[in-house]
Write a structure and sequence with these properties.
The complex is a heterodimer of chains A (293) and B (468). With 293 residues, chain A is an alpha/beta fold. Chain A has helices spanning 14-27, 45-57, 63-77, 124-135, 148-157, 183-199, 215-232, 245-253, 268-273, 277-284; strands spanning 2-7, 30-37, 91-99, 102-108, 114-121, 139-142, 161-164, 174-178, 203-209, 236-242, 257-262, 289-292. Classes of the chains: A alpha/beta (293), B mainly alpha (468).
Chain lengths: 293, 468
Amino acid sequence: MKLLLCIGGSEMSRDTIIAGGKIAAAFNSDLSVLYVGEKHATNMTSALDMSRMKLSEWKIELPGVKVLEYAEMVLNDMNLLEVDDTGEIVEVHSLKPDINGAYELHAMGKHGQNIRLRLREGEIIDEVIKEVDVGGYDVTIIGASRERRLVHRLIQFVECSLFITKNIKDIDYRFLFAVDDTEMSRKALLIGARTANFLKAEATLLSVVSKESDIKIGEECISKAETILQKAGVVYDKKVMVGDPTETIIEEAGEDHIVVMGSSKSSQLSKFFKATKAVKVVQDGNCPVLIAK
Amino acid sequence: MIRIILYWIDTHRWFITAIFSCIVLANIPPPEGLSENGMDVIAILVMSTIILITAQVPLPTVPLLIAVFQVLLEVNTPKGVSQSFMSDSVFFIMGSLMLAVAIVHQKLDRRIAYLILRFTKGSITRLSMGFILVCALLASFIGEHTVAAIMLPVAITIVNNIDENQKNIRNITLMLMFSIAYGCAIASIGTPSGGARNAVMIDYWSRLYDIKISYIEWMKYAYPMVLIQIPVVAILLRITFKPEKVNIGTALDKLRESVKAEGKMNYADWLTVSIFLFVLFLWVTSSDTLGLGIPAFIGVSAYLAFGLVSWEEINRGVSWGVVLLYGSAISLGIAMQNTGAASWIAHALLSGFSTFHLGGGLLLMVIMAIITMLVANIMSHGPAVAVLGPIFLEVAVLSETSVVLVGFIIAMASSFTYMTVIGSPANTIVYGSNFIRPQDFLKAGWKMSIASIIILTLISATYWQFLQ
C-alpha cells in the first residue's frame, strides 16, 4: 500500500503529519509527504531560476525545503524513520531535483518502507493529481480547502481514495461508516476497519434511507458491513435512519467522528456538474472524511 | 477517458473562453467606424489579454496564437507576420537577457555585499538606503530581474545575521526586501536597457510614428525620475516598516569580513564589468547607427568568446518565451495601427473622457498613467505596455498631445508595480523568498503609487516641457 500525505506548511501541518504517520504505521505502508509551493507566472520562471541559482551559491535553502525538513522531524519524533548508530536518519538519497517532477528526499522507514519527502510547485489540486498519477498511490491524505470548488475538483479528479483531514484535532475519534449497497462502500469499510482497529477506535455503522419503507434495505446493508467490522475486531454500534443522507451523516458525525464512505457511482459527467454526497459532506461537515475509490 | 477530457476542460476553461471569444468577436459585424480587420485584431487582443491574466496555459502560447490568428483571420500574410515579429528592439531584448545571464554567473554579488556593509556602519536606515541605491543604479542599466536575483541572497544573509528569529525583526526584513523590489522598480525606466518594455516603446515610436529616440535621449527624459524617487522610496519604507532596531552595532562585522575575503574581484569579474561598460558605451554613443540590439550582441559574443558564460547557461537562463511575447506584442501593435483598431479604441476612449469633462493635456496624461499603473499591477508591466501602448499613443495623436511624452508616461507608469507580486519580476523574486506575504505589498505600495504618480505629473508638467 502507498500513502500520499499532502501538507500545507510547517507547524500548522503537524496534526495532519501525525495522522498520516499513524495510518502509514497501521498499514506498514510506503509514505510520501508532498508539499506544493506556490505557482508563479510562466514568464517569471527564468528570473526565479536565476534567483534560486544565486541563493544556492550563498547556501540559502529553497523555501519549501524547510517545510520538508519539519515533516521529517515530526515523522522522526514519531519513531517512524530508520536511524543509524549515531542517531542520524538513514537516507536512500538526499534532496534531489527532477525525481518524477519534484524535488525529493528519500528516507527509510523502521520496517523497510520507503518514506519520501517531495516538493512540487503549482496549483495545489493540479499538482496532487499529477503526483497521484506518477506515484500510483492508494490513499491521499489532504486537508480540506475553504474553497468549495477545490474540494469538488479534488474528489472528482484525484484517482485514488482520499482521507480529507478537515478540522482534525488531537482527540480519540470514533469512526462513522456510512454504508450502502455499493462496491465503493465495501472498499471504504475494508480500509476504515483496518485503520480503526489499529487506532483502537470504536465505530458506528450508519445506513440512511430516504423513506420508512426502505428501512429493511438499510438493515441489509448494515448486516453485510457487520461481518467486515467483526473480522477486523472493531467494537461498533449500528443505526438505520430515515432522512436526507448528507444532512444525516453530517449531523451524526459532529466534530468527533471520522466519516468513512464510498465515492459516488454517478457518471463522471454528472459528477462534473453536480456535487456528490461525499463532496457535500466534506464541504458542509466539520470532521475528517475518508472517501474510498 | 471522459475524466481526462473533463479535467482538461476544468483546468482550461479560461483558455477555452478566450479562444471562443476571439472566434465570436471576429464573426460579428464590426461597430460603425471599425473595419472588419480592425475587429479581428480587437478579437485577438481580447483573447491574448484573457490568456495572459488567467495563465491557464504556458505564457509562450500567447505569442504563438497571436501569429496564428493574424494569419487565420487574414489580418496579415505569413510573411508579414513573421517580419513584424522581428526588429531591433527584439534583438535588443534578446541580447539584454543574454547579458543578464552572463553577469549573474559571476561572483559580483559578494563584492556588492561588501560595499553595502561598509556603507552601513551599523545603521538600519543606511543599510536600506544602500540596497535602494545599488538596486537603482544597477537596475537602470542591466534589467531588474538580474539585480533582484543578485541582491536577494545578500539581503537574506544580512537578515539571518542580524537575528536568526525572523519574528523579532519582521519590519527590518520587509524593509530590506522592499528596498530591493522598489529600488529595481523605480530604476527600470532609467535607460532603454532597464526593461524590455522600454525597447517596445522605442519600437512603437519608430515603426508607428517614425520617431527615433536614442539611448541618451531616453536617459535625458527618464533618469531624473529615477534620482528623485530614490530618497522617496527610502523615506516611505522607513516610515511604513518601523525597524525593531535602529542600530545593529557590530552584528554584521563578521559577515563583512567574510564577504570581503571571498569577494575580491578576479580577472573574470573585471572582464565582465569591462565588457558591459563597453556595451553601455556603444548604446550611449552609437545607438543611432548600431541600434540597440547589435551592441548587446557584441557584448554577448565577447562573453561567449572569453568563456565567461557557456551557451548552455545562456540557453537555460534566457526566457525565450518572453522574447517571443515582446515580438508578438510589437506585431499586434502594428496590426492595431494598420487596421485602424487602435484609432477606433482611442476615439471611444476620448469620447468617454470628454463625457466626464476630462479633456486633454496634462489631466489626460495623468489618467493614462493611472490606468497603465493599475493594468501593470494586474498583468505585469511588459504586457501592460504592449497592450496599452498603441491605444494610448493614438489617443495622444487624436487629442493633439505629444506622442513622445505620452510614450514616456506609459513606460514610466508601467514601472509603478508596487502593489502586487506579479507586477514585476523583482517583486516575484523577493516574494519567492517566503519572507513576504502578498498583503505586505499593499502596506507601502499604495503610498509609493501615489508618490510616483505625483512626481511623474510634476516632471511632465515642468522638466519635460523644457525638453520638448
